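Notes on consecutive records. When two proteins share a document, each keeps its own sequence and its own token line. Never mix them. Below: protein one.
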Amino acid sequence: MSDLDSKVEIYKCFASFAYSFEDRAQITSRLYITLNSVIITLLAYRYSDEKFNIPVVVSLGLIVCAMCFCILWYLTLKSITRHTSAKHEVLQDMEKELPLKPYTSEWYEKLNCGKRYIRTTTIHELFPWVFILTYIFFALMELR
């Protein structure tokens, strides 16, 4: 195996590892979206059915816990984003020794260095805050 072949194999291995981190963000988001959907459904059902009576303290406790879950979700996504960014920087460094530079080409030439490009991680990081705003709304309804 030539030196170039071994570098290409290492690059492919590292690239697949980098993308597995992005898959982890998807799985994490799916888990938290499901959890938050269940909590919001419970809170909404509380207002739609008078027979389903939860004490205010329990509702507020559930809202606080849900907001904590959202903060954990956001911090997890930020951590995954930092890891993924570092891995992509390493890929760019590795490409300096390869004849083709697919990642660098995609990012700098096709996406114009990220200008006017909204990264999917940025969009993912907004989801926890949308849920937090929803929980603030429910908390305000509880306190009225």
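Protein two starts on the next line and is unrelated to protein one.
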Amino acid sequence: MTVTIGWLHAGSSSKAILAAPSDREVGEFLRTRPLEALTPHTLVTREAVLAEIGRIRSLGYAESVGERQSAAGSVAAAVLRSDGTVLGSVSICATSPASTRPPAPPTAPSSPPSSAPPSPPPSDPFTRLGETTCPDGGTVR
């Protein structure tokens, strides 16, 4: 999996990496990079990102729900070298089907049971045969 450098303010892998360096290095990064909104859930203010960095440092891991890709979530932790510098991150990601599909109306008409498993909606970008796209922009095959 690869993460586009520059978007370290969005997604659990990126935020875990961003939280590992010193306050000075994080501050420099935030001063020199735009905080682009990738989805409506992306943190786009320096204050919000710094608060999230504090939370990540306290917990030891980062979480993301819909920050890079809508309806995708992940959890990640930074991987450090023996000298304390960042090597990368390790994460797990999944889709959130409940948030990509509208809920059934409370008075939905009943339909006859089907023996076939339900198909994902065609607009679901995460479901392809043998391939999963993670919230941090990577693909697992």
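For the record: Strands lie at 62-65, 72-80, 86-95, 132-133, 139-140.
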